[in-house]
């Protein structure tokens, strides 16, 4: 497939897919960000809500990373190594159990462990692993109607969960858990990925290697995306976590679109057989930059109009609104461009770029948060995310894509 055909073939269907893809995730995130989290803040208070937001970040960093890594790996390997369902299901089962144990240990370290928290938090972690992976068949087959319904099921689960939480004061994780369970149940009946459950193929080692590399990359990316809660709770307070969360809320919603948009991009790029030309990379960079500018303006307008209605202390965070949102938008843009590099340069190059970014981010943010508190974190995060975006853009122009096996054989036989 040539670049021209990639950009022009079935444009109407691609537009419909894009609308379904982004629409599904927007519904999902809007329910989470504008219904569930404000309800947690209202019922639990600013300080305790900051603790809950941090625990949700632990879920995203651990369970989310494993599920997303498995998802990306299958997208990349499906047409190359033809893995079996069991190759991934074994990884998800063992990994989900290990992630649940890590979650219980974290609760114990933070002195938050109880029988109720251990049961529901570990279940949340396990089902989150499955949910992050569960939409992979819809992406492979580009069936974005089922993808939309999948996220609609999750959103309905969240709504029912938050209603249950509000009426009964049951442990907060139940509200999120119900949504994850709804999504997994839908995937079980609407796709084949959980059939032939634990039967592995001859390519299991290849799959395990791919998931492992992508897991490291996803861990770095999710650690930085959720670093505000992890670092601020450790070095400042739960109140600072809540303040930064609200300031960056609309930016976070944009950043959370990374996974669905990346999935849409890679689902089409795996059908493209050419190299990443400078012209093609320029198109991606210019398009993403324009998208980023639109997102920044939209986030600022939405924040000023909507957030005062949800949080009566919004005026406290207005001074950090622009840098907090801009940092998230830059993170989103570089993450989208990185998935393009994943397709053409492989998992190791993507991991290397994320590793460099992760080291710089954490070292700088820890130092300046200790020195200057919340403001130190805000402006350091902005600087490092801007640096990441520039590095990714430059790398795409100067690096040489790896050759696939077919291309190598062609050259050797020539």
Can you characterise this structure?
With 414 residues, the chain is mainly alpha-helical. The protein has one domain (3-406). It is 83% helix and 0% strand. It contains 17 helices and no strands. The longest helix is centred in the C-terminal third of the chain and has 52 residues, at 347-398. It is globular, with a radius of gyration of 21 Å.
What is the number of independent domains?
Answer: 1
Mean pLDDT: 84
Low-pLDDT stretches are: 404-414
By secondary-structure content and strand pairing, the structural class works out as mainly alpha
**Rg calc:** 21 Å
Tally of separate helices = 17
Helix content estimate: over 70%
Q: Which helices and strands, and how do they pair?
A:
Elements (H helix, E strand, L loop, with lengths): L2 H6 L2 H34 L1 H32 L7 H25 L5 H20 L1 H5 L3 H25 L4 H18 L13 H22 L1 H9 L2 H10 L1 H7 L2 H12 L8 H33 L10 H25 L1 H52 L6 H9 L1
What does this entry show, briefly?
The chain is mainly α and 414 residues long. Helices cover 83% and strands 0% of the residues. It starts with a helix and ends with a helix.
Give short descriptive properties of this protein.
414 residues, mainly alpha, 17 helices, globular, disordered C terminus
